[in-house]
Amino acid sequence: MDFHLINLDCPACGSAMAAGPHDILFLCPHCGSGAVLGNTKLDLVDSTALMPVPGRRARLWRPGWSIETDVLVNARRGTGGRVTPGWSGRRRFVIPAFPLALEDLTLLARALSSAAGATGEVPKEPCHGGTLDLVDALVFIRYLVVGSEVERPDDLATVKVEISPVSHRIVALPFEIAEGRLRCAVTGTVVRGE
Ligand SMILES: [Zn+2]
Question: Is 14 part of any domain?
């Protein structure tokens, strides 16, 4: 076994970045830089924040991925063997990167990905709990796309989905606290937080 001790100081400004034991992505509360855990060090990643919509306030922040990707859906085939049109296009997905039940993760990712949320500077506040790496976020995007194809009103038997990422950022997501749950300050979606 090969162990590396990795310094969790921000690679951009040197400030300490407090983190949970399973965190693998980080946002610096001092300079707003994003970073992911590499093999021997923290690697810088572009970062941004989604702003609360008017009337909502950020009580706490949780990390996610904002990923722009080309999506290709083809070879849609129904249960009767009939082929129906696919589509292709560039889409932006926002995938929460902190621990959530699959149902909540799906609900929140769908809501955030279809919201035209305003972006702004990463808040100078803690934003911990990032445990979903980029590869898994891309797998999840594929799952979302396949899920929406299955929901279309035809009996889909098979479909081919290709996800070709164009760019990615770590994004700070704002939440309110509602009776012990987290309410997204962008979409209003309520999920069970940790
Ligand atoms: Zn920093």
Answer: no
E strand map for the chain: 25-27, 34-37, 42-45, 47-50, 60-78, 83-84, 87-96, 119-120, 156-178, 181-184, 190-191
Distance 30 CA to ligand 1 centre (A): 5
- How far away, in angstroms, is 7 Cα from ligand 1 center? 13
Its domain, for residue 102, covers 25-189
Q: Does the structure show a pLDDT above 80 at 4?
A: no
118 is a domain residue: yes
Q: Which residue has the tokens 């969790």?
A: 8
- Encode pLDDT of 49-99 as tens digits: 999 999 999 999 999 999 999 999 988 888 888 888 889 999 999 999 999
17 domain-assigned: no
In the numeric block, the tokens 């083809």 are attached to: 74
Q: How far is the CA of 26 from the centre of ligand 1 (A)?
A: 10
3-state secondary structure of 54: coil
Predicted local confidence at residue 157, as pLDDT: 85
Q: Is residue 3 part of a domain?
A: no
CA of 10 to the centre of ligand 1 (A): 5
Q: How many whole angstroms from 193 Cα to the centroid of ligand 1?
A: 26
Query: How many structural domains comprise the chain?
Result: 1
Query: How far is ligand 1, taken at its centre, from the CA of residue 27, in Å?
Result: 8
